[in-house]
Amino acid sequence: MRLHTVRMAKHPKRPRDTNQLAHVIAQLATGELADVKTEDGKDPAAVALGRKGGLKGGKARAEKLSAAKRRAIAKKAAASRWAKK
Protein backbone atom coordinates (compact mmCIF):
# COMPACT_ATOMS: atom_id res chain seq x y z
CA MET A 1 0.00 0.00 0.00
CA ARG A 2 1.37 3.43 -0.97
CA LEU A 3 0.85 6.45 1.20
CA HIS A 4 0.21 9.71 -0.57
CA THR A 5 1.24 13.03 0.87
CA VAL A 6 -1.40 15.72 0.79
CA ARG A 7 -0.24 19.03 -0.60
CA MET A 8 -2.00 22.37 -0.39
CA ALA A 9 -3.05 23.84 -3.70
CA LYS A 10 -1.07 26.87 -4.83
CA HIS A 11 -3.99 28.14 -6.87
CA PRO A 12 -7.74 28.25 -6.22
CA LYS A 13 -9.84 25.27 -7.22
CA ARG A 14 -11.50 25.61 -10.58
CA PRO A 15 -14.70 23.89 -11.69
CA ARG A 16 -14.20 20.53 -13.41
CA ASP A 17 -17.13 21.03 -15.75
CA THR A 18 -15.92 22.51 -19.05
CA ASN A 19 -18.75 25.03 -19.37
CA GLN A 20 -18.40 26.24 -15.78
CA LEU A 21 -14.64 26.52 -16.18
CA ALA A 22 -15.06 28.59 -19.35
CA HIS A 23 -17.47 30.87 -17.51
CA VAL A 24 -15.01 31.40 -14.63
CA ILE A 25 -12.17 32.11 -17.05
CA ALA A 26 -14.31 34.65 -18.90
CA GLN A 27 -15.21 36.33 -15.60
CA LEU A 28 -11.54 36.51 -14.62
CA ALA A 29 -10.59 37.95 -18.00
CA THR A 30 -13.28 40.66 -17.89
CA GLY A 31 -12.65 41.57 -14.25
CA GLU A 32 -16.06 40.42 -13.00
CA LEU A 33 -14.36 37.95 -10.70
CA ALA A 34 -11.26 38.89 -8.72
CA ASP A 35 -8.54 36.28 -8.34
CA VAL A 36 -6.57 38.24 -5.75
CA LYS A 37 -4.61 36.78 -2.85
CA THR A 38 -2.78 38.55 -0.04
CA GLU A 39 1.00 38.27 0.24
CA ASP A 40 0.59 35.32 2.62
CA GLY A 41 -1.64 33.49 0.11
CA LYS A 42 -4.96 34.05 1.87
CA ASP A 43 -8.11 35.28 0.17
CA PRO A 44 -8.82 38.80 1.51
CA ALA A 45 -12.59 38.26 1.43
CA ALA A 46 -12.26 35.09 3.52
CA VAL A 47 -9.93 36.85 5.97
CA ALA A 48 -12.41 39.71 6.38
CA LEU A 49 -15.30 37.31 6.89
CA GLY A 50 -13.39 35.30 9.48
CA ARG A 51 -12.39 38.43 11.35
CA LYS A 52 -15.97 39.69 11.31
CA GLY A 53 -17.18 36.47 12.90
CA GLY A 54 -14.34 36.42 15.40
CA LEU A 55 -15.04 39.95 16.57
CA LYS A 56 -18.63 39.21 17.51
CA GLY A 57 -18.26 35.57 18.61
CA GLY A 58 -17.04 36.07 22.18
CA LYS A 59 -19.53 38.78 22.97
CA ALA A 60 -22.43 36.75 21.56
CA ARG A 61 -21.34 33.70 23.59
CA ALA A 62 -21.05 35.76 26.79
CA GLU A 63 -24.58 37.14 26.30
CA LYS A 64 -26.00 33.62 26.01
CA LEU A 65 -24.31 32.34 29.19
CA SER A 66 -25.84 32.80 32.63
CA ALA A 67 -23.87 34.70 35.26
CA ALA A 68 -23.22 31.50 37.21
CA LYS A 69 -21.88 29.70 34.13
CA ARG A 70 -19.62 32.66 33.22
CA ARG A 71 -18.30 32.69 36.79
CA ALA A 72 -17.59 28.94 36.68
CA ILE A 73 -15.73 29.31 33.38
CA ALA A 74 -13.68 32.23 34.78
CA LYS A 75 -12.79 30.26 37.94
CA LYS A 76 -11.68 27.27 35.88
CA ALA A 77 -9.55 29.52 33.63
CA ALA A 78 -7.94 31.24 36.62
CA ALA A 79 -7.22 27.90 38.28
CA SER A 80 -5.53 26.57 35.16
CA ARG A 81 -3.45 29.76 34.83
CA TRP A 82 -2.25 29.58 38.41
CA ALA A 83 -1.81 25.80 38.55
CA LYS A 84 1.68 24.62 39.34
CA LYS A 85 3.12 22.07 36.97
Mind explaining what this structure looks like?
The chain has 85 residues and is mainly α. It has a domain at 37-85. Helices cover 59% and strands 0% of the residues. The longest helix has 21 residues, at 44-64. It is elongated and about 60 Å long. The mean pLDDT is 79.
Sum this structure up briefly.
This protein has helices spanning 18-30, 44-64, 67-82. It is an all-alpha fold and 85 residues long.
Order of helices and strands: HHH
Report the uncertain regions.
none
Number of strands: 0
- Count of DSSP-assigned helices: 3
Q: What's the pLDDT, averaged over the residues? A: 79
Structural class: mainly alpha
Share of residues in helices: 55-70%
User: What value does the Rg take, in angstroms?
Assistant: 23 Å
What's the quaternary structure here? single chain
Strand content: under 5%
Q: What is the overall silhouette?
A: elongated
Largest sheet: none
For the termini, the CA-CA separation is: 43 Å
What keyword list fits this structure?
single chain; 85 residues; mainly alpha; 3 helices
Task: Detail the topology: elements first, then pairings.
Blueprint lengths: L17 H13 L13 H21 L2 H16 L3
